[in-house]
Amino acid sequence: MANSGIPGPPLRATHRFAFRVHAATLPAGEPDAKVPGVRLALVGAAHPAGKVTCGIRHGSVYESRRSNEPSTVTLLRPRVSSRDAKLERLGADEGLGPDPLLTDPQSLAFWGRGIGGDWELSIPDHEFDAGLDLAGLTEVQVSTGYQFVR
To answer: Within a domain: residue 64?
Structure first.
């Protein structure tokens, strides 16, 4: 599942990009979808390292959908993980890497949570100190992988 948007002044001013994923928009036949990984891109940004470490936050609203049932909402503690963001567009076939082991839920702070809910990408100040330039930024891409129960 991919989300992208044209960054506006808030990202440049606050270093945050908030978005929402609605569980009701997940494909039919893929109930109880859980997050195993996330990929990020700040398309057109520039950084001497060629990538930027960002925070990706799954908010306190956790939306899920069981097979042929309406979405349910649960309130949980927000979780944040650090992920590297590319500076060019994400490729469709890059994948998320190997699935996390079911015995290793610590591999991602929000591993196993439903995809639906509030999300936020944040850029730490130290990335700007290290030379991050958002002047050429044209798009923010967030690609959320998911696993589901059959």
So the answer is: yes
Q: What is the pLDDT of residues 86-121, one digit of tens each?
A: 999 998 766 655 555 555 555 566 666 667 788 899
The verdict on residue 72 lying in a domain is: yes
Is residue 102 in some structural domain? no
The rounded distance, in Å, linking the Cα atoms of 31 and 39 is: 22
Considering the domain boundaries, does residue 101 fall inside one?
Answer: no
Sequential DSSP letters for the chain: -EEEE---HHHHHHSEEEEEE-GGGSPTT--S-EEEEEEEEEET-B-TTSSEEEEEEEEEEEEEE-TTS-EEEEE---EEEEEEEESSPPPTT----SPPPTT-GGGSTTTTSBSEEEEEEE--HHHHHTT-B-TT--EEEEEEEEE---
Number of domains in the chain: 1
Contact indicator for 113, 34 with CB cutoff of 8 Å: yes
